[in-house]
Amino acid sequence: MTCIAMLGYGTVGSGVAELILKNKNRLRKNIKDELILSNVLVRNLEKHKESDNINILTKDIEDIFRGNVDIVVEAMGGVNPAYEYVKRALQLKKHVVTANKDLIAEHGGELLDIANKNGVVLRFEASVGGGIPILKSLSECLVGNNIKGIKAILNGTTNFILSKMSKENMSYEEALKLAQDMGFAEANPESDVMGYDAARKLSILSTMAFEEKVNWKNIKINGITDIDTVDFQYAQGEGFEIKLLAIGEYQDNSIYASVSPVMVRKNSTLGRIENEYNAILIDGDAVGDVVFTGKGAGMFPTASAVFSDIVDIIQNKKEKGILFDYNEASVDTLWRKENKWLLRVNTRNRVDAMAGLSELFPYCKIITKGMYGLEDEVAAFVKSENEAVLDRNIETLREKIDCNNIKKMMMLED
Amino acid sequence: MTCIAMLGYGTVGSGVAELILKNKNRLRKNIKDELILSNVLVRNLEKHKESDNINILTKDIEDIFRGNVDIVVEAMGGVNPAYEYVKRALQLKKHVVTANKDLIAEHGGELLDIANKNGVVLRFEASVGGGIPILKSLSECLVGNNIKGIKAILNGTTNFILSKMSKENMSYEEALKLAQDMGFAEANPESDVMGYDAARKLSILSTMAFEEKVNWKNIKINGITDIDTVDFQYAQGEGFEIKLLAIGEYQDNSIYASVSPVMVRKNSTLGRIENEYNAILIDGDAVGDVVFTGKGAGMFPTASAVFSDIVDIIQNKKEKGILFDYNEASVDTLWRKENKWLLRVNTRNRVDAMAGLSELFPYCKIITKGMYGLEDEVAAFVKSENEAVLDRNIETLREKIDCNNIKKMMMLED
């Protein structure tokens, strides 16, 4: 018999409770064990008074730690007080399963260390990609590979918004409003639309893939709040979509890590991922490209991943878990390979801008005003040997001509 | 230290040997173990006289069993003598890793049983989907799900042929020839093009997913040898592609299992899988649709999966492996849901055929002769409440009109 205590009884928590109940017989048959949900920590007992589980709910965290609990499931979200509770649970030699990307991105290394020292396991499959089995695949199934790169859509909310902007011609504000109405976006969407959520997930993913700690604060982060319908017109004119892409890639001796809106081919694997779906493309030196797609969030997809972590712990109780105490990686925020970029130069001096662009960039495809009718803009697809050179050229252009703003966006052709 | 013996030193075997060498340091660091390749069984020593591993090659299977071997990697392919060797290895309490779908589809249940009785593990991740981590994902990561259905492209050779027929307008014969020239198809391509290879993989996948033994001999199997360029014209006219699809799906109390050419939307997840790539879509009741894509064969993708099985065994030596001793499933070869189908009626009596079709099928979209110019054919997209009714209607039509052949193909709209 395995006793489970849960911290939090919101969407994820109640999903996990339901899966535990639903899989009772199957677990008994397949792994000869019984899962008992023995305690659930809630903030407000009153709110759950109709729940079937009312007799195991508690407001007192000490009830959780006092009990004879084997595994603590942390489903409260946010860094505090989750951090303190998880730390105490591990120190008390309880295994911990969490879906909390903020907590792992912030304190993963330290918590895994505490877990290892105490002979217990900390698992967090649900923290990246919801129900998509990506962390286990990375750490166990692709163990014979050197991972060369990751390209991923890790945030369902922003992918939903970008899909609606692209397919239904909505403005950013309209699409965000729809996402909020449909429950895909929070009332305060900052963490999603600014790219922080995706960056935390990329930090976890890259740290596991590259076996060096990729601190999420070192990742270059651009959200989608600056994307407008004209960006989509430029992209679509070339057969491209715009996606908020998380990229982790080995470049020489450092790891390029960024979250930003990127143009990808409409018909590419990532270009086709729509609405709330996530996708993760892993490039391993032995396996080649492997792609994982599915719902990156939601009650049951997330609960499915939490549940698999629980079963894993039961089946391998004595095994050491993931190691995460890697050295801090040297993180690079500039793309070092030759690439195409979209530049949008906001200026009243269109002729000078065109002259300047074509002088600075040997490959330069200028989009004429007539196409999308912006009076005060010159746009061009340019090629640059790397991002540092691109940025220098942008600076030169800025000095040369009278312009307000130059916006750049990467264009991935493969 | 873990001693590994290998049976076979062809493409897969040499890939595994290379990965073992390449990952030496990493394994020592991460799992504190050393892998030693101690023996390799080959048929012809002469052929490998230039090999770096010449000193550990042997023609005598007894050398393999005599040694102090922990894990036997079976990389010879085919059912015999692999079956006998694997059985003996398990009885001698050696763990076994194999990439051999024929062996597992034929004898998987018995061999897993022997493994369990002897306290060792039999693993076969590479037998389905090459380097794509699908079996572990199914059995461990999706353990909280009831699997409702599987739709998959499991054979890279046929997918390559169909891609070339569709995109480059090649005939079946031309595309097959190209596949053979490029090394994607064997000189004798029967097992691929007749659908047997995909059916064996579907049998393994379905048996694990549905926890009932889906015997591959009970699967409805149609290969791609009858597909012609006109099929592609009909499909493309509706925005569809043709894929050799392996489908396993719960229908009432039985499992529908088939491998056959199916029309899927050009822009759907499976419609976009091209050339030698494989894709597996799993529909779980908690997680929803999850899709896994990657190279389904080849030296290093396959070796990547074999290697992960080896590491898994080292890390969990004392664990029981997969259970496979399920009851024989009731396998259904008729699709029980309402669906659209393409019917191609080969007849000189076109007017009667059109009249018959429109009388028998309330939904009937007849493709007029002018479109693709076949003088002796009437084609139609029809809807039928299930496949049994469809087949009855086809019989009625056959009796009613003078026709040679009626060809049907399923059209999946979602």
TrEMBL record, chains A, B:
PROSITE patterns: HOMOSER_DHGENASE (PS01042). Keywords: Amino-acid biosynthesis, Methionine biosynthesis, NADP, Oxidoreductase, Threonine biosynthesis. It comes from the Bacteria. It catalyses: L-homoserine + NADP(+) = L-aspartate 4-semialdehyde + NADPH + H(+). Pathway: Amino-acid biosynthesis; L-threonine biosynthesis; L-threonine from L-aspartate: step 3/5; Amino-acid biosynthesis; L-methionine biosynthesis via de novo pathway; L-homoserine from L-aspartate: step 3/3. It holds the Pfam family Homoserine_dh. One of its GO terms (molecular function) is homoserine dehydrogenase activity. Its EC number is 1.1.1.3. The keyword Ribonucleoprotein does not apply. Belongs to the homoserine dehydrogenase family. This is Homoserine dehydrogenase. It comes from Clostridium tanneri. The lineage of its organism: Bacteria, Bacillati, Bacillota, Clostridia, Eubacteriales.
